[in-house]
Design goal:
With 120 residues, the chain is α/β, with parallel strands linked by helices. 18% of the residues lie in helices and 32% in strands.
């Protein structure tokens, strides 16, 4: 991942975005219970090393203004890992330097496409 702290997860409902984020948080030794912040928009977790991890779910927002109201820019600029579900709801607010994870259902399995988005 390098210096990229923004990771967006794209995929249909039920594709496994939250499950993948739970596994990433488990790998990072997050001490808190990881769940989708569908109604709060953002959950903050702490790793065993005291690092913050922010988990966003923008599925239910109706306009980007709602993300601005919670101070999404400050989270993105914090230098802490930001894991974002439903980034298409705030597309114009996303930092250009980010990791994109596309999840597609393939029968009983999943196909993952990961690419780095960088401002040149």
């Amino acid at each position: 991942v390098g210096s990229t702290t923004i990771i967006v997860f794209r995929g249909d409902l039920g594709a496994g975005k939250t499950t993948l984020i739970k596994n990433i948080c488990n790998f990072l030794t997050v001490k808190d219970e990881v769940s989708s912040p569908t109604f709060s928009l953002v959950n903050e977790y702490l790793t065993a090393q005291g690092e913050k991890v922010y988990h966003f779910d923008f599925y239910r927002i109706e306009e980007e203004e709602e993300a601005l109201d919670i101070g999404v820019d400050a989270y993105f600029d914090s230098g802490h890992l930001c894991l974002i579900e439903w980034p298409e709801m705030i597309e114009s607010l996303l930092p250009e330097d980010r990791l994109e994870v596309q999840i597609a259902m393939q029968g009983e399995g999943r196909e993952f496409n990961i690419k780095r988005q960088v401002h040149v």
